[in-house]
Design brief:
The complex is a heterodimer of chains A (about 180) and B (about 325). Chain A contains nine helices and no strands. With about 180 residues, chain A is mainly alpha-helical. Chain B is of the alpha+beta class and about 325 residues long. Helices cover about 20% and strands about 40% of the residues of chain B. A four-stranded antiparallel beta sheet of chain B has the order 1-2-3-4, with no helix packed on it. Chain B has a four-stranded antiparallel beta sheet with strand order 5-6-7-8, with no helix packed on it. In chain B, strand 14 and strand 15 form a beta hairpin. Chain B starts with a helix and ends in a 5-residue tail after the last strand.
Chain lengths: ~180, ~325
């Protein structure tokens, strides 16, 4: 089943669209949610909310790539759910480790006013990602978009764990430098 | 919301093509692994495959090969690429248990029952801890390739892939570590990633909707589908403490119950090394090259020293290099 045909079913308001979306992408979306939430029921809920989100937004929206559209919905919903959950307790998920790795982004005592402007940040990160070498970009996205652990990235992308760790460290250093250069940090 | 959280949110807006770039790479690695396993069949293919593999590694800038390690039955098992799987006892010596033949490495894992290794793409052999004799543990010649993980102290999780050019079929099963019998299916996904079936049905005169319904019946009837979810294998450390190397070259512990955390070791370039820990001992593996380009592997063995309250305090070096 091609994605184009599944999207057509959404436009026809045919509920088979949901069945086929589930059949094709459930485990993929679940992995994204689970990497963020580390909780089975919460991840299932977020994946179900993704289907609901897709049903409500297609139409009018027509995704260019259904897979990435769904994965972005899942990631957004899961991040919101995580914020709600972490107001109560920490769960040591990959995202918390990722945030820990990015702690240098937080305001120092010298620049307490430094907070990111959302629009500027989106533009900046788009440019930063596009200028990275392909292998570095893959590793960076696997870590900070998909929230895969270092070990999973090494196995899935076919690199050594040492290479993944070193690449992430260097890319983060470059990111902090660029943010400072642009006056965003 | 913190700046780090804002940055992670902003990443959600990146171009789709970068996400697809990661997906394509994951598929390519799977295909490459399959190709590597298949190449075992013929010496010529091995030669070409190895050469291609070396070239591909060079082009990605890999700096040598990492050592992989697993704990089981009080032993530490590790594998040196192109050599084999070794068994090490704290305070003792390393012993070559399985010699790797005609491959870079064998997939392996270990639990309280024994060592499990895969010399090909469809079978697993096991060696109990108190023995040196290998016996066949699992075999399925229909397999395309598979991965195995320690599920708990006695059971294994096998990730089985039966995909071909028409269908994507992946199944994850929990098997009994003693008998090899399937206990339950933890996850299964089967889907046509090409629209061949529907296109063929349309060619036979079915309308698109009819073809869709018929194809859907075919997909559903090719096997019992389950939507139970993937359960992650255990993390490094033990039930109480999680160990990890952070990006500031610290080896840290984290108590999952109390939230207590601390640094056990700080060393220059530690973040570029691999670590294996079981809650009692920690092994740190690194690799370097001689002037002539020969790769040298080192594995240091440490004991975790606890204070009276049971809190880890520091690491005591037991062996500078467990590799003979």
């Amino acid at each position: 089943m091609t994605d184009e045909k599944i999207i057509e079913l959404y436009f026809d308001r045919d509920e088979q669209a949901l069945t086929l979306t589930k059949l094709k992408y459930e485990s993929y979306l679940y992995t994204i949610a689970y990497n963020i939430l580390v909780d089975k029921p919460d991840s299932e809920e977020c994946v179900n909310d993704t289907y609901m989100g897709a049903w409500n937004s297609i139409p009018p929206h027509r995704p260019n790539v259904l897979k990435t559209y769904l994965s972005k919905l899942t990631r957004n919903i899961s991040l919101k759910k995580l914020r709600y959950n972490t107001a109560q307790k920490r769960n040591n998920s990959q995202i918390e480790l990722a945030i820990d790795e990015l702690k240098d982004l937080e305001c120092t005592t010298e620049n307490v006013e430094s907070v990111f402007d959302e629009k500027e940040l989106i533009e900046f990160i788009g440019k930063f990602i596009s200028e990275l070498e392909t292998s570095k970009r893959r590793i960076f996205i696997a870590r900070y978009w998909y929230f895969y652990s270092v070990r999973d990235i090494a196995r899935k992308l076919g690199y050594t764990e040492s290479k993944v760790k070193t690449t992430l460290k260097r890319t983060r250093d470059k990111l902090f430098e660029e943010l400072k250069k642009e006056g965003l940090l | 919301m913190t700046n780090a959280e804002k940055l992670l949110n902003a990443l959600n807006e990146i171009d789709d093509r970068y996400l697809l770039e990661v997906d394509k790479r994951i598929s390519a690695v799977k295909t490459r692994r399959r190709a590597t396993w298949s190449s075992i069949a013929a010496v010529f293919v091995i030669f070409i495959g190895s050469f291609a593999f070396m070239i591909s590694n060079m082009s990605w800038g890999n700096a040598g090969y990492s050592i992989y390690g697993e704990f089981g039955g009080g032993y530490f098992y590790y594998e040196i690429p192109y050599k084999g799987i070794y068994r090490y006892t704290v305070g003792g010596e390393s012993e070559l248990i399985v010699k790797v033949k005609r491959a870079q490495y064998y997939e392996f894992t270990a639990n309280d029952i024994g060592l499990y290794y895969a010399p090909d793409n469809y079978s697993i052999y096991t060696i109990p801890h108190d023995s040196d004799e290998a016996s066949l543990f699992f075999e399925d010649k229909e397999l395309n390739f598979f991965n195995m993980y320690k599920y708990d102290s006695e059971d294994l999780l096998l990730s089985l892939n039966y995909s071909n050019d028409k269908i994507y079929h992946e199944k994850e099963v929990i098997v009994d570590g003693k008998t090899g019998e399937e206990k339950r299916v933890a996850f299964e996904e089967k889907s046509y990633y090409k629209s061949d079936v529907i296109e063929k049905l349309e060619e036979q005169g079915y309308s698109y909707k009819q073809a869709l319904e018929k194809a859907y019946t075919i997909i559903s009837s090719t096997g019992e589908r389950t939507f139970e979810y993937y359960e992650k294998p255990p993390e490094q450390g033990n039930d109480e403490y999680r160990l990890r190397i952070d990006y500031n070259d610290n080896l840290t512990y984290f108590n999952k119950e109390t939230g207590q955390k601390g640094v056990l070791l700080h060393e220059e370039y530690l973040s570029s090394k691999d670590m294996f820990g079981d809650g009692k001992n920690v092994y740190i593996s690194s690799h370097d090259f001689t002037d002539r380009g020969k790769e040298i592997h080192t594995i240091e063995c440490y004991e975790i020293i606890f204070d009276e309250s049971g809190t880890p305090t520091y690491l005591k070096l037991i062996d500078e290099n467990i590799i003979e």
